[in-house]
């Protein structure tokens, strides 16, 4: 259990960029991706703002070399684009040259198409290709086929907004325990009416730009994204003389066991997840140089998370920021894009700004980092929390 | 490697399986293309205030997981891991349908909350106050096996001592009707006993919830030891034998060591040939069993197979109703479960008497 | 007003699936949340939808609900004062 888990490739598509480089440039230039919704005709279009990816499904298909008439959900298309980039960066020529797995997180699966044709299926067979695309595993299966992964461990995790974080965690554990040599991990979710209306019923959508950790925060902006990492064992890194971008050093998963959708007031689950991750990594809180917070900008999350940070780090909370002001809350993928951002932070020794912050919260004296800051970084901690009490923490490090 | 013990079982299925003191004593036969669970009296298990918002999948899981915890004689566990192909899809369907019918107005949060795939694992954790590792796998026919793999890894690596692991899926109208359109579900009813002779495409769809307590400590209630689980996203008929043998070899076992092979035949004329391939080659001298004529097919139907294998080992009886060939097992100690769905998501699970 | 209160009790029982509760068991000044009927924050969201759908009252902030849903009395008073249908 003392093996390293190397990150050798990354791919990401979100509202702030179609690849990792574009995402990074937006983060350091303060360019947010939040706008009115243009691709989904919803009655809420004037009440909400979203982090929407610019490319249409037709454009995505064209880029991926998939025939326009092929029935594929947007969720799967986004996954393919991001994972392709990760595999390319990892310099993988034969994906089956060692035991390669795929673990993907998603919450909506193929809902973006199913909700369009829900009743139409019974009128005409035109869209029957989407019927079996609803289940959450479909996007992962199509991604595995697209990458050419065969006879291997391919699975999907759905733990709400911590799905991709948990996919990364499981992948790291499988590499450490020798079950896999290489695993592609991350997540994908597209915007759809289902989630827009779902979050609307919970009354936690902001009608303007989301403002993480601000006293006047009004809720979250939904976003869409896909992000994947290639994780490889020490043996494969050595065998292929891979350039290592960073390491998955720690991970922790806990359940808040408090409420079906809300976080406990003092962030019990979050504290447990961070404690576990620190233990696995062998680090102490003072080793953490930057925290990429979950920071959804809902009244409940930011208070609970803020308190949990104070419980772990005391009066020495390192610089922290939520990048959700840039991307929106990308649900299952949040822990995935933020893993990519964490590794980029390590590579570039840079901390991203927590945009839209003006007024400190009344409950405590926590101030997020609001400007781009250069700082020598060794260890970055990333939080992701979800419905069902699911709390996950990942720690990324420069060294194994 | 630390052994992983299966200390208890819990089942709610299309047979009367919720009473752990029985083992397929009476068989319910169906003549249908969908087979719902025989529901226990949920009120005996769930207080009304808690039950009022629960989807059927959560109710089934509550009963099944409670029975497993009771049998194992424990109240606290270190981790909860659930597999579900579709989650509480009944609520997802109603939410989508309300979105369309009401033009996105007057929607209520409960349906949406229950639609979250991890709602079962979350609500079990909430009920038990379990703050440990909590995972939900949602990968079609290997959802349950993914959960087993995770649970086994946790125990072997000392990440947890005792894990509640389960699989659950609901049978729901829109899903059934749409999947019947595309031929995944049989268009005509089939009698349970004639499932494998139907020679038609599609399956008979079922539902169920199966939960197990896995532990590094052998409890007095112990059923068997979990030796190995492996999944394959793809596997051709031609490559089946080789992969099954390699899987057994990693456990230092050969085909002669398998006392019973439990196969996932679901009566789909297009995909049962995968089972026939093994049945007539590698397993031709091995006693074989099947079960989907009792449980129906669903993403976590292998939860029923896992329940069946554990029951067979603990009771040392092989019910006639599940026997697939005429070979009588010399002993009932090592059981291999093989499953696939529509030629994808294959899994091998191996358990042994301990 | 007493008609509205009776109606509210029936609707709450139906909407929130309170199978084991009867209309007579809910007193007009019983607290609906916490100690009394035992409703929670998800129920509050359900009641907000009910206000919108059945009485044409839209609440923008779920926090507003806390005072309104204190009891059947407060709910009826708020609805009577603000209803549009």
From TrEMBL, chain A:
| Keywords attached to this entry | Transferase
Checking PANTHER family in the record gives:
3-OXOACYL-[ACYL-CARRIER-PROTEIN] SYNTHASE, MITOCHONDRIAL, POLYKETIDE SYNTHASE-RELATED
Q: Does the keyword Acyltransferase apply?
A: no
Q: Per its UniProt record, what CDD domains does this chain match?
A: KAS_I_II
What domain of life is recorded for the organism?
Bacteria
PROSITE patterns, per database record: KS3_2 (PS52004)
SUPFAM superfamilies under this entry? Thiolase-like
Family, as annotated: Belongs to the thiolase-like superfamily. Beta-ketoacyl-ACP synthases family.
Q: Which InterPro entries match?
A: Beta-ketoacyl_synthase (IPR000794), Ketoacyl_synth_C (IPR014031), Ketoacyl_synth_N (IPR014030), PKS_Beta-ketoAc_synthase_dom (IPR020841), Thiolase-like (IPR016039)
Mind telling me what this protein is named?
3-oxoacyl-[acyl-carrier-protein] synthase-1
The UniProt record lists the Ketosynthase family 3 (KS3) domain at 2-398
Pfam families registered for this protein in UniProt: ketoacyl-synt, Ketoacyl-synt_C
TrEMBL record, chain B:
InterPro entries in UniProt = Beta-ketoacyl_synthase, Ketoacyl_synth_N, Thiolase-like
Kindly provide the name given to this protein in its UniProt entry.
3-oxoacyl-(Acyl-carrier-protein) synthase
Report keywords, A-Z: Transferase
Give the organism the record lists.
Zobellia uliginosa
Q: Does the keyword Cell inner membrane apply?
A: no
Q: Where is the Beta-ketoacyl synthase-like N-terminal domain?
A: 46-216
Q: Which Pfam families match?
A: ketoacyl-synt
Automatic annotation (TrEMBL), chain C:
Pfam families named among the record's database cross-references: PP-binding
Boundaries of every Carrier domain copy = 2-83
Q: Which UniProt keywords apply?
A: Phosphopantetheine, Phosphoprotein
Which species does the entry assign this protein to?
Answer: Zobellia uliginosa
Name it: Acyl carrier protein
What lineage, starting at the top, does this entry show? Bacteria, Pseudomonadati, Bacteroidota, Flavobacteriia, Flavobacteriales
């Amino acid at each position: 259990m003392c093996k390293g888990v190397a990150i050798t490739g990354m791919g990401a598509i979100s509202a702030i960029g179609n690849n990792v480089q574009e995402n990074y440039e937006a983060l350091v230039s303060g360019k947010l991706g939040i706008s009115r919704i243009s691709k989904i005709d919803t009655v809420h279009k004037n009440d909400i703002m979203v982090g929407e990816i610019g490319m249409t499904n037709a454009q995505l298909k064209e880029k991926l070399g998939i025939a326009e008439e092929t029935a594929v959900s947007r969720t799967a298309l986004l996954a393919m684009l991001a994972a392709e980039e990760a595999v390319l960066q990892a310099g993988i020529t034969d994906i089956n040259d060692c035991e390669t797995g795929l673990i993907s997180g998603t919450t909506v699966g193929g809902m973006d198409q199913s909700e369009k044709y829900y009743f139409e299926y019974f009128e005409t067979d035109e869209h029957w290709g989407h019927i079996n695309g609803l289940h959450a595993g479909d996007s992962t299966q199509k991604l595995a086929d697209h990458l050419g992964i065969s006879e291997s461990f391919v699975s999907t995790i759905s733990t709400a907004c911590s799905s991709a974080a948990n996919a990364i965690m499981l992948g790291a554990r499988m590499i450490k325990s020798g079950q896999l040599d290489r695993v592609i991990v991350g997540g994908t979710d597209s915007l759809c009416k289902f989630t827009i209306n779902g979050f609307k019923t919970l009354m936690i959508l902001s009608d303007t730009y989301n403002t993480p950790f601000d006293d006047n925060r009004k809720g979250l902006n939904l976003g869409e994204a896909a992000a994947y990492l290639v994780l490889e064992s020490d043996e494969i890194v050595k065998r292929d003389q891979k350039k290592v971008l960073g390491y998955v050093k720690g991970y922790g998963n806990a359940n808040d066991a408090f409420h079906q959708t809300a976080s406990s007031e003092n962030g019990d689950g979050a504290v447990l997840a961070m404690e576990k991750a620190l233990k696995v990594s062998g680090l102490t809180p003072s080793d953490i140089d930057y925290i990429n917070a979950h920071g959804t900008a809902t009244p409940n999350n930011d208070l609970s998370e803020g308190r949990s940070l104070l419980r772990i780090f005391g009066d020495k909370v390192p610089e922290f920021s939520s990048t959700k002001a840039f991307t929106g809350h990308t649900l299952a993928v949040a822990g995935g894009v933020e893993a990519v951002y964490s590794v980029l932070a390590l590579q570039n020794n840079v901390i991203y700004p927590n945009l839209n912050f003006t007024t400190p919260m009344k409950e405590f004296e926590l101030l997020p980092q609001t400007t781009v800051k250069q700082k020598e970084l060794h260890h970055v901690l990333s939080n992701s929390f979800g419905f069902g009490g699911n709390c996950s923490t990942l720690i990324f490090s420069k060294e194994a | 490697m630390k052994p992983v013990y299966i200390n208890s079982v819990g089942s709610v299925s299309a047979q009367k399986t919720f009473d752990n003191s029985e083992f397929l004593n009476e068989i319910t036969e169906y003549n249908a293309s969908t087979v719902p669970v025989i529901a226990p009296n949920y009120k005996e298990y769930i207080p009304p205030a808690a039950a009022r918002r629960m989807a059927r999948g959560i109710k089934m899981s509550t009963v099944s997981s409670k029975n497993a915890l009771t049998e194992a004689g424990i109240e606290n566990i270190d981790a909860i891991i659930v597999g579900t192909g579709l989650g509480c899809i009944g609520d997802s369907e109603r939410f989508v349908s309300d979105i369309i019918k009401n033009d996105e107005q007057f929607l209520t949060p409960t349906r949406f909350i229950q639609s979250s795939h991890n709602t079962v694992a979350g609500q079990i954790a909430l009920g038990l106050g379990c703050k440990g590792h909590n995972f939900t796998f949602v990968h079609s026919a290997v959802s349950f096996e993914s959960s087993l793999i995770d649970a086994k890894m946790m125990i072997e690596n000392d990440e947890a001592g005792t894990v509640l692991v389960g699989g659950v899926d609901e049978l729901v109208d829109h899903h059934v009707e749409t999947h019947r359109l595309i031929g995944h579900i049989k268009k005509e009813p089939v009698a349970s006993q004639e499932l494998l002779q139907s020679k038609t495409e599609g399956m008979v769809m079922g539902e169920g919830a199966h939960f197990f307590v896995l532990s590094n400590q052998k409890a007095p209630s112990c059923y068997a030891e979990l030796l190995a689980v492996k999944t394959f996203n793809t596997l051709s008929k031609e490559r089946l034998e080789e992969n099954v043998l390699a899987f057994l070899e990693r456990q230092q076992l050969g085909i002669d060591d398998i006392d019973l092979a439990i196969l996932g035949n679901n009566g789909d004329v297009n995909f049962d040939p995968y089972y026939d391939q093994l049945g007539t080659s590698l397993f031709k001298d091995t006693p074989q069993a099947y079960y989907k004529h009792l449980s129906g097919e669903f993403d976590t139907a292998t939860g029923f197979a896992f329940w069946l294998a554990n029951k067979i080992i603990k009771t040392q009886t092989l019910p006639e109703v599940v026997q697939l060939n005429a070979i009588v097992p010399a002993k009932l100690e090592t059981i291999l479960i093989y499953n696939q769905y529509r030629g994808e998501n294959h899994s091998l699970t191996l358990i042994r008497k301990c | 007003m007493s008609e509205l209160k009776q109606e509210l009790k029936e609707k709450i029982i139906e909407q929130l699936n309170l199978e084991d509760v009867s209309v007579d068991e809910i007193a007009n000044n019983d607290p609906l949340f916490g100690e009394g009927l035992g409703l929670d924050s998800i129920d509050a969201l359900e009641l907000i939808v009910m206000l919108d759908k059945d009485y044409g009252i839209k609440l923008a902030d779920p926090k507003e609900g806390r005072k309104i849903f204190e009891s059947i009395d407060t709910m009826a008073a708020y609805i009577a004062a603000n209803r549009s249908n």
